[in-house]
Every structure is written in structure tokens, then in C-alpha cells.
Amino acid sequence: MAIVIHNYRWRLGLATGEPVYDALEARLAAAPAISVPTITLEGDANGAPHPDPTAYRNKFTGRYEHRLIPGGIGHNLPQEAPRAFALAVIDVDRL
């Protein structure tokens, strides 16, 4: 529980992160293009705030696929749709 709460505080800028990762965080904050094969997933009942997949499609310069997972799936796909999640991990190797 403490780790989860700290993560939310860190993401909101209310707590400090691990200094050893500062350089990596700075690189990621620049939002570089992703060139490796990628499959993004979204549950059809994701109630968390999120952009439409078309808004970030151009960030992927390599082979790319987006999958909408049906069945009342929220935003915790590994737990709520483990089969679809595992299939994406396997399938990305074939892209």
C-alpha cells in the first residue's frame, strides 16, 4: 500500500522519486518516438482519464497495433483480461 500511495504522490509532484533514475526520467519526459514493435491495449470499460488511441499513434515509428479489449474490462488489463494481455505479449514478437 505504501508503494502505491508513494507512486501517486510522486506522479503528482508531491513526493520525490529515486535520484538514481533522474536522468532516465528526463529522457522519458522528452517523449521520444518508440521504434520497437508495439501493441497497445485498452479495456472497453476503462473509466480512467486517457487519450483516444489516435492521439498517440504517431509516437510509434515501428510496427504498431492497438487492441480494444471487450467484456467490461477496465484499466488493469493484466488482472482483468490476463489472456488478452498475455496474447499481446506473445504477438508483439511476431509484428
Can you put this structure into words, describing what you see?
The chain is α+β, with helices and mostly antiparallel strands. Helices cover 39% and strands 13% of the residues. The protein is built from five helices and two strands, in the order H-H-E-H-E-H-H. Strands 1-2 form a two-stranded parallel sheet. The longest helix is centred in the last third of the chain and has 11 residues.
Helical run tally: 5
* Poorly predicted spans: none
Main β-sheet, spatial strand arrangement = 1-2
Q: What is the terminal-to-terminal distance?
A: 37 Å
Characterize the main sheet: 2 strands, parallel
Number of strands: 2
The overall pLDDT, averaged over residues, is: 93
The percentage helix is: 25-40%
N-to-C order of helices and strands: HHEHEHH
Question: How much β-strand is present in the residues?
Answer: 5-15%
Judged by helices, strands and strand pairing, the structural class is alpha+beta
Taking all Cα atoms into account, the compactness measure Rg is 16 Å
Anisotropy-based shape: globular
